Amino acid sequence: MAENNTLQSIISHAKEYGFIFPSSEIYEGLSAVYDYGPLGVELKRNIKELWWKHMTQFHKDIVGIDSSIFMHPKVWKASGHVDSFNDPMIDNKDSKKRYRVDHLIEDHVAALPEEEKMLILERMEEMLGAEDLEGLSEMIEELKIVCPISKTANWTEIRQFNLMFSTKVGSVADEANEIYLRPETAQGIFVNFSNVQKTSRKHIPFGIAQIGKAFRNEIVARGFVFRMREFEQMEMQFFIRPGTQKEWYEYWKEERLKWHQSLGIPAENFRFHDHVQLSHYADMACDIEYKYPMGFRELEGIHSRTDFDLKNHQEESRKKLQYYDHTLNEDGKPYGNYIPYVLETSVGLDRLILMLMCHAYTEEDLSTEDRKDSRVVLKFHPRVAPIKLAILPLTRKDGLPEIAEQLFDDCKMEFKCFYEEKDTIGKRYRRMDALGTPFCVTIDHQTKEDDTVTIRYRDSMEQERIPMNQIKELVQKAIK
Ligand code: GAP
To answer: Burial, 424: exposed, middle or buried (Cβ in 10 Å; 0-12, 13-18, 19+)?
Structure first.
């Protein structure tokens, strides 16, 4: 199956089964904005919970916060976002379409041999880093890139567009202050550095984690929930002593890669991509890339942010953001006062969802000599599956629903269960496959006699008869 078809099939499946809908669909939708349906929201909550536990429970030196989306406008001046959070754009005068320059070049070279492609992309990244807009214009001309719609090379000059959304605070328009919707959650952590450090009595090295919405006016929206205008980030800033950033950078790279694999995705689907073009705040940076249907793309960023943010906030706010380090150096003296360096891990929740959907989505041909048959199954790891257990009485009578309800009540506090009486058992199994439910339990007439049930395993479709009182433990074991 072609890769585009796979992504298209996943988008259709996500909508049909209540994972992800286009936003405001009854009004033809809003570009690059999506809503999560009943199944999608469960998947999302499971991932958030796993990340949160991993960060704040598994690591005893990390605490969490939940800061607001609106922040003082000076935050974004100090962070560099007002001046530097730009994407270079170019317009085609004939089609009137606007493109991000790096996307235009990347798409053009996608089909070239790997070596030639990498040479062009490296040159492009250098020019982007140096903000060499003239050089990029020449590159587009040299590569004879045309607009995919008008097929002409009638381009405007390249201009920088700031990606932040702004709005006004205050009731009287003229007196209102312009503020921004945060383009990253990280700044909420930086401005709370002292509050958190003092109140949680943490010593360096320690981290602050946060999950929350971020907003970017992405000009070119592509790849479903891969690039959205409103999305969710899970970020952790790890505060360290200056000079130790290399070892922490390596530590967090490995740690985060292992976490992704713990979601049931094999190592060969990931790779690191070192940044040539560093963001305005970083001295080392890389992406963990996942092999999406459209190719390897950024899933998470690992950034060594130096003391850039705290230092600039200290200057802009005139409030001390230093830390006194009592630990002794090689000369037996305390390290004393310094502005901590920061190692950041930043993953997009929506990109994680897309990764899990892509990995799980499987079309299986189950045809036999006599009968054509197929199924679509989402092979989620039981830990992330939106529903863990489907409880299905074989019929609606003979006391079977009552037994099923009892099992439901016994399990519902431990994990998400689903109850259904309608349709044939075969149809119900197939629906649960499409939702990614790892276990189905059928209550039948034999259950009344010996308290046993049939458990059906999603991936193998095998069934076995086991005592009903073993079900809860079996599911708990699988999701642990
Ligand atoms: N605080 C650092 C930061 O925001 P970033 O590389 O710009 O760094 C971090 O973003 C992560 O946020 C990305 O790796 C990606 O997973 C996610 N992300 C960024 N822009 C996104 C968008 N428009 N839609 C969905 N996810 C996005």
So the answer is: exposed
How far is the centre of ligand 1, averaged over its atoms, from the C-alpha of 270 (Å)?
A: 17
Give yes or no for residue 87 CB within 6 A of ligand 1.
no
pLDDT digit string (tens) for 101-139? 998 999 999 889 989 998 999 899 889 878 899 999 999
Residue entry with tokens 């919970």 = 49
- 406 three-state secondary structure: helix
C-alpha 164/C-alpha 158 separation (Å) is 19
CA of 85 to the centre of ligand 1 (A): 12
Pocket test for ligand 1, best of 161, 215, 231, 355 (most atoms within 8 A of CB): 231
pLDDT digits (tens, 9 = 90+) for 164-211: 999 988 876 666 688 999 999 999 999 999 999 999 999 999 999 999
Q: How far is the CA of 78 from the centre of ligand 1 (A)?
A: 20
The first and second tokens of residue 11, run together, are 């988008």
pTM: 0.90
